Amino acid sequence: LLALRHDPCDAEAGNVECDDDDGEGTASLIDQPELPAGVYYLIVDGYSAERFGPFGLTVDVDPPNAAVGGN
Questions:
Q1: Is 2 helix (H, G, I), strand (E, B) or coil?
Q2: How does the average pLDDT of the chain come out, rounded?
Q3: Judging by beta carbons within 10 Å of its beta carbon (0-12, 13-18, 19+), is residue 3 exposed, middle or buried?
Q4: Contact between residue 45 and residue 51 where contact means Cβ atoms under 8 Å apart
């Protein structure tokens, strides 16, 4: 499960997009080509309490010189 938010603590007002299976197979995919500048939080979670463990994450940013960071 992926969630993209303006505010990581407000699931309703801060939510930009949430997805659990729009990628290949049952993989999550978020595609937001027209986001305004600002701070965004990408939250990775399991689909359910029984679905957890290692995961892979790929982030493509366009334009290539846009800032990508994390804490």
A1: strand
A2: 82
A3: buried
A4: no
Give the torsion sign (CA, 41, 54, 30, 68): positive
**CA angle (32 as vertex; 53, 65 as ends), nearest 5:** 90
User: Are the C-beta atoms of residues 7 and 13 closer than 8 Å to each other?
Assistant: yes
Of 59, 13, 12, which is closest to residue 32 (Cα–Cα)?
A: 59
This prediction has a pTM of 0.72
**CA pair distance 13, 5, nearest whole angstrom:** 9
- Percentage of the residues of the chain whose pLDDT score is greater than 70: 87
The residue-averaged pLDDT of 8-36 equals 86
- Considering just the CA atoms, what is the radius of gyration of the chain in Å? 13
Q: What is the pLDDT of residue 52?
A: 77
How many whole angstroms separate alpha carbon 19 and alpha carbon 64? 24
